[in-house]
Structures are given as C-alpha cells and as structure tokens.
Structures
1.
Amino acid sequence: MAKVAFLGLGVMGYPMAGHLKNKGGHEVTVYNRTAAKAEAWVKQYGGKSALTPKTAAQGQDFVMACVGNDNDLRQVMLGPDGAFGGMAKGAVLVDHTTASAEIARELYTGAKKAGFDFIDAPVSGGQAGAENGVLTVMCGGDAAPFARAEKVIAAYARARNLIGNAGAGQLTKMVNQICIAGLVQGLSEGLHFAKKAGLDVEKVMATISKGAAQSWQMENRYKTMVAGKFDYGFAVEWMRKDLGICLGEARNNGAHLPVTALVDQFYSEVQAMGGTRWDTSSLIAVLERK
Ligand code: NAP
C-alpha cells in the first residue's frame, strides 16, 4: 500500500483513481479543478480530497495526473499552486495526459532538478478501458522509478511498458493515434462503398472481419458507424488535439504523415457539421453527408 494522489478526475481520471483505492488498496487523495467532482469521488470511494495540486502532492509516494493538454498540464504542474511545489524528495510523478513529448522532457528535467522522478505515461483503451481497469500505458523515463510506479499503475492497466527515455511514452501514443487515424478513414470508406454498391453490410462485415481487413475499429464500431451513431468514446476534439501533436512532432523529426494530415482535415469537416463531441468513428459522416 502506498500514499497516492490523483490530479484530474475527468472521464478517465475518475475511474482510474477509483481503482487505486478499490483494487490497489492505496491511501488516495484526489484533486479536481471543479471541486464538486472531487467531493463526489470521496463520497463514492472514501479517501481524501485536496483543494490544490500542491497540497494534494504533499507527502505522497506517487502522484498521478490526467488532465487535458499541454497548457492544462503546465498549470497543474508548474502553476503557483502546482504539484511541483508539493512533491516530496524521492517521490514519483506519473502523467497520463496525452501531451507533447516536449513538455514531458521539460517536466522530467524539472523534476530531476527538484529531487523527484517524472514518468510520461499516456494511455489507450478509452473510457471503457479506464472503467474496467484494463488500460494500456506507454511510458517514458528512468527504469527504477518506472519499476516502482508500475505496481501502482497496475490497478487500472492491463499492459504498461517503459518504451525509452523521457518523452518516449508520448511519442508512442503519437504512433498509436497515427495508426488509428488512417484506419478509421479506410473503414469509413469501405462501409460507404459497401452501402453504395447495394451489398448487405452485415454479411460483408461478418465475412471480411475474419480476414486481413479485420481491426478493433471494425469489430467494435462498424454497426454504430452504419447507424450514424457517434456517442461511443473518444471525442473528435480530443483526436484533433492529438493529431496536432503528431503533426507538430513530425515537423521536428522529419517524418512524412500525409494521410494523418488529411484525416485531421476530415475531422475539421466533422466539427463543421457539429460533431466536435462525436466519437472518432464519425469520419463516415463526412462521406455520407447529403
Ligand atoms: P476530461 O473528461 O475532459 O477531463 C479533463 C480533466 O482535466 C478534468 O478533471 C478537468 O477538470 C481537468 N483539467 C483540465 N484543464 C485543467 C486545468 N487547467 N487545471 C486543472 N484541471 C484541469 O478528459 P478525459 O477524457 O478524462 O481525458 C484526459 C486526458 O486523457 C486527455 O489528454 C485525453 O486526450 C486523454 N485520453 C482520453 C481518452 C478518452 O477516451 N476519454 C482516451 C485516451 C486518452 P474539470 O473537471 O474542472 O474540468
């Protein structure tokens, strides 16, 4: 059992922090900007809440965070009441936000200077993965603190791997999002084509999902995509944030991402259709637009 704080009780953070308490049996303190959510969490799980990231971080062995983007992270970590001001020497700060590799490296260096460790640890598996405690966590940082943090992360993750130095977790998440972007557009075009060709989409999917075209997106999303239902997970606005991070990193490292850039623009069309909060499978809506 360890003393753990969790900062950011959003769609992902709320159930992740819950697993730390229920499955991990840790002594948990939560912080959320909108305090009502922290109060609701304490009511549901027990534990304690703190009014600032700094006070939440004080005296903890581990501090986990999951907020929105680079700017949010900077505020929660380095702001006047930020977690950096409260971290104990030798403690480990684990960040589950999907953010840039640049900020991960900056926070790693700052943490080292201040005498504690930082691991960038973005996740995949979505809301369902967080609720069921079966996330995949991709980590960057040093081996010793990772080995200690891994045991705590295990409360909400099925897989967690140290990929490399600081920033490597964020870079791996970028690979994840690049792979998904092109795939969802391909699946959208396949379904759109099947409908236009007058095929029985159910029969087509039941058949080709047993072959080389199979994917998680195909198995889990084709029915709702055909039905035009896009309320099943990761929102378009978050995906555009992530693709922006990928494209920014590619400008630095010289990678060519033509399809990723195009799909980002298709998502901007989804947003123009009112789909900012639709899930990422909504790319098909652009093709089916009347
Ligand atoms: P969310 O529901 O919007 O929650 C965001 C959390 O961050 C909230 O607790 C919010 O506090 C807090 N926050 C944001 N800006 C802040 C600031 N400036 N200061 C303090 N707190 C701040 O988001 P989510 O879906 O949990 O996603 C969190 C992260 O995980 C994102 O980086 C996302 O890309 C990533 N992710 C999400 C999914 C998914 O399926 N949802 C999957 C994989 C990865 P308030 O309650 O006060 O707004």
2.
Amino acid sequence: MVMLASIDKIYREKFNGEPLLVRSPGRVNIIGEHTDYNEGFVLPGAIDKAIYVAIGKREDAMIHLYSVDFKESHEVAISAMKPTKTWATYILGVASQLLQRGHAVGGFNLVIDGDVPLGAGLSSSAAVECATVFALNELFSLGIDKMEMVKIAQKAEHSYAGVMCGIMDQFASMFGKEGSVIKLDCRSLDFEYIPLKLDGYKLVLLNTNVKHSLASSEYNVRRLQCEQGVAWVKEKYEQVNSLRDVSIPMLDECVLGKDPVIYKRCRFIVEEIKRLNDACDALEMGDLKTLGQKMYETHDGLSNDYEVSCKELDYLVDAVRSEPAVLGARMMGGGFGGCTINIVQEDAIDDLAAKLKETYKKDMQLDLSVHTVVIGEGTAIQKLPGSIHFNQ
Ligand code: GAF
C-alpha cells in the first residue's frame, strides 16, 4: 500500500491529474524450466512482490513516462516510438503492439515503481508489460481479454526487448492466484490452479546478485537448438511439431548422431516435461519430499545438459543439498544468474540465511539476498483506501 500511495502522489505532482493504479506481480516457477517455448508444461505462481503503475490520458499524442526507481523520465511521440535500451522499452513495446493490432491508444502519462528485484529472474519485465497492457486496456476501454493481453505482453518482449521468451512469465503475472500455482499447458494454454500446500515449509529465494550478460543471447540460442532438434526428428516423424511430441528414443535415433550438444538440450526438455508431471502428482498427494527431489534433478539438468546455470547458482544449490531443512532447490528462470528457489522448513530459514550469507560472501565475494515469498494474486486494478472511483 505504501508504494501504491507513493506512485499515486508522484503522478498527481508530476502530471496534475487523478491516475488509474495497476499492480502486476513477479513470479516464481516451481518446476518446468525452458519448457514453455517447447509446448510443454510449467508450474509458476505470482508472488507478493510487484510492479505498480499510475496512468492517465493526455490531450496530445505523446507518451510521458517516469520511473521512480531510476529517477528518470522518458518522453516520446506515439508516432516516433522505438525500442530503447532502458526500462522504458517494456512499456513502449506494449503500446506499440497495441497500435499494431489496431487498438486506439492515445497519449498517456505513466509513473512506474515496484519491489520486484531487477535482474533476479523474477520476471520484473513481464510484470511491467502486464501492468502496462492491463492499464492501457482499462484506460482506453480496449475490451481485450486477459489471455490476449498475455500474448501482447509476450510479443512486446520479443519485439522491443529482443528476447524470444515463452509465455510463462506474462501468463503467471496476469493469471496469478493467491495460494495456488498454475499448471499451464503451453500448447493448448489450458491451465489449472493447484493449491501450494507447504505445511511448515516456505518458498525461499536466494538471489545470487549476478546477471551474466549471456542471459538473453544464450536464451535465444537454446530456443534455436530446440527447434533444430525438432526439425531433425520431423524428417522421420512427420507428426512431430515440438519437443512436447518427442520421446528419448526419437532423439537417440534422429539427433544424437547429428549433434551431441543439440541432443543434450533436447533430452533435457523431454525429461523436464515428464518431471513436471511427476512433480505435480507429488504436490497433489502432499509428497513434498518427492517434489523437492525433482527440483534438484531439474537443477542438475539445467546445469549439465541445458547449460544455463552459472557458478554462483550451482554454489547455492550445492550449499543446501545436504541441509535436512531444505527439501529441494534449483536455479529458476532463464538462467545465467538470478535466484535459486528453495523449499525450506519455516523454523530453519533464519539460521540458514545467516549461514549462507556468510559462506557466499567468503567463497564468492558477493552479497546474498534472501527473500521468503508468498504466492499472491495476478494483475489487477488497485484502489487506495478512501478513493471512491476512477474518473477517466
Ligand atoms: C524466461 C522466459 F521469459 C520464460 O518464457 C521461460 O522460458 C523461462 O525463462 C525459462 O523457463 O523467464
């Protein structure tokens, strides 16, 4: 509420009007990594850390943006919008997608702030995109449904940020539900909410505080490697359209002899899709121990076969492997930095955090940030207490 009140105030001071307020959260993913763009399943949830925007219409055809975090403004005419290398690109990318689809977006003012740690693999960029598309949809009464908004937000990331991401992050931010993770079928886009019952345990994020520059370039390379693998399998098995349709024997037959690296990448994805389904069964049966073991297996695959981990992430996972209070841990998100996600016994969190902060500093010469997260609601309009309604 503090952040909401503060952007409301900043908006009024800067732009002299009453803003519409929107909140859109970051996300965690329990298991199912790099499976979204391979038409597999993912199991994310929205978290209690979010991006907030305050937005209002302008009389002219200009976009005026202000980031509280960066203390920076960005002003551009709608007709002159183009990608930037700054925070503004995610907002402009959404506006540009809406215009390209023929939606009547006029000039607007927008103030943005948030408490999703940036570059930590918690999808702050997807949260910005979802907050923006939701806010513009409301402001200009565009009548777009949530699923379409997710697709627009994802496309903004492709076209303005240059990362050919899957749909998971934007989906989780938009459709998040308190207390539940979302099992999303990234082929059909069917989804179900699964209550995350962690009795006595909590989700703890350990932030490496590094983001290696390889993150977006290697992400796009992995995507291409998966597509190449599918193309080779398809030469023999015409019905195959994605790694979702592929089995390990097919990879052995069609990919292994051609390129052992592409084979490893594809094998990881095929295994990860199966692992996610097993992990969901375990979660639904309340078997947190098995779920945790699957998370460790995912980490090992991401590190050794998909090769998107880094020494800091491996360090943090290895550091908890033999901790009885930790059921499972793995790197989360695209990779090359950001956070590990851990299932940790509630009473042991403080001691574990203190110990890891010390050893991480000593061995990696870096500060470790520790966040306990709760699964929260998805993108929504916010009201400040005492505000009656929003007048456009
Ligand atoms: C990033 C992407 F944006 C997601 O679409 C997903 O592929 C993830 O990496 C890996 O699972 O967060």
